[in-house]
Amino acid sequence: MASRADQMAASLSLANFSQATELKKRLWFTLGVLIVFRFLSFVPLPGVDPTVLAQLYAQTQGGILDIFNTFSGGSLERMSLIALGIMPYITASIVVQMASSLSPKMAALKKEGEAGRKKLNQYTRYGTVGLTAVQGYFIAVGLEGYGAQSGLQAVVEPGMLFRMTAVISLIGGTMFLMWLGEQVTSRGVGNGASLIITAGIVAQLPVTISNLFESGRTGAISGMLILGTIVIGLGLIYVICFMEQAQRRVLIQYPKRQTRQGVMQADRSHLPLKINMANVIPPIFASSLLLLPLTITQFAGNNVNSESTWGGLVLSINQYLAHGTPLYMSLYGVLVIFFCFFYTAVVFNPEETADNLKRNGGFIPGIRPGKNTEMYLDYVLTRITVIGAIYLTLVCLIPEYMIAKAGIPFYLGGTSLLIVVNVTVDTVTQIQSHLIAHQYRDLITKAKLKGRTR
Q1: Contact 81, 173 (CB under 8 A)
Q2: What span, in angstroms and rounded, lies between the C-alpha atoms of 195 and 69?
Q3: Which of 337, 352, 418, 421 has the lowest tally of Cβ within 10 angstroms?
């Protein structure tokens, strides 16, 4: 039988928005932050020539720069103040989260409650500044030599002053985006950092779709192939929506407790284990590890002698690890599977969960508390992670195969599709929760008024 909350969620309609004043304020605030983010993506770094950059960016396409450029909404291509986007903050958050699971000292901080959480957030911010400074310095150095062989110069006045200015500007832009994301999380709707990444990806969609139909108009690809691409894309979206909400519910039973009426009652609940507990982390890590050496060798390939040992190695890496090659696809799938198991082991600890259940008097029917419960949870988690890893691998490899083999100019990969769908579902869920809370407040208010009139 459906609960009262499920019935209210099913009866939600757009008419309820007119009465939910707080939700409308949150939505307008979120929309305003995303507009500011898009404006900032068109503000270039001081000392950079945007016209020359537009001519030179095509030379390094296919590397990790494409992923970062997609996540930043084209800011990296234009080398704006937020060229690095919010990715340094995301990377620092993941590193701190993994460290809190692997390091006993960090794990102790995590258990300290609000004070420990603030300390971990402080470490995350320090890590964001450090990563942005390192990446910003290498970007500034790379910009100074960008297009030297072509006779073009992306930087107006190269030197240490430009490097310092670029690093400070990039740090300011990334930290401002981080602050905007935190404001959206607290005062808006949804996760701020995820919404900013999603806005950057969605901002590239019109250009991508127009290129797809332009290729069909000129005859570069057939109309049936375009139709097949749309059908496969919609199918992938459906599969992602289904799998991201799929979970294995482990029955948890608590001993009988005596109620006020003297009745002995046993409590039951469920421990939900998501099929894809690693979320979008495995594709991001796998893409970064594969495309990082390719990007470095692409930069170095313009300055090496093909007859030397180093030059031959660089050209071989570019050839065999090129985007869409069988070796690249195989390594990509293997890395996605590896990081899926690795990150799942980091975020979910069966031993800790079994200890918490035993401490609170809970147990799984038919399984002894303690070590047996830990082994059972590890067994169940391993089985569902296999399904999640296969699902992630297929979602990531199908778009890559279509781009590489079918020649489709549709550069929205599986990672981007996962992020967009996940964030959209999460945002819609939060909007529904705000509407349900608003309806509950109305019910409570009406009940109080009726109580006063009696």
Answers
A1: yes
A2: 16
A3: 352
Phi, psi of 61 (to 5 degrees): -70, 145
Are the beta carbons of 415 and 283 closer than 8 angstroms?
Answer: yes
CA 442/CA 426 separation, integer angstroms? 25
All domains of the chain, ordered by start, with CATH?
Answer: 16-203 (1.10.3370.10), 214-432 (1.10.3370.10)
Q: What is the mean pLDDT of residues 379-398?
A: 91
pLDDT tens-digit readout, 50-84: 777 777 776 655 555 666 677 677 777 788 888 88
pLDDT band for position 201 (50/70/90)? confident
Averaged confidence pLDDT in the chain: 79
Question: How many whole angstroms separate alpha carbon 343 and alpha carbon 266?
Answer: 35
Q: Encode pLDDT of 249-297 as tens digits.
A: 888 888 766 666 655 566 778 888 999 888 888 887 787 777 666 655 5
Q: What is the 3-state secondary structure (H, E, C) of 408-427?
A: CCCCCCHHHHHHHHHHHHHH
Residues 6+ apart with CB under 8 A from 343: 98, 277, 278, 281, 282, 285
At residue 111, what is the residue type?
K
DSSP-assigned letter for residue 268: E
What DSSP assignment string belongs to 244-260?
HH-EEEEEEEEEEEE-T
Instruction: Scan for tokens 């898009």, then name that residue.
Output: 38
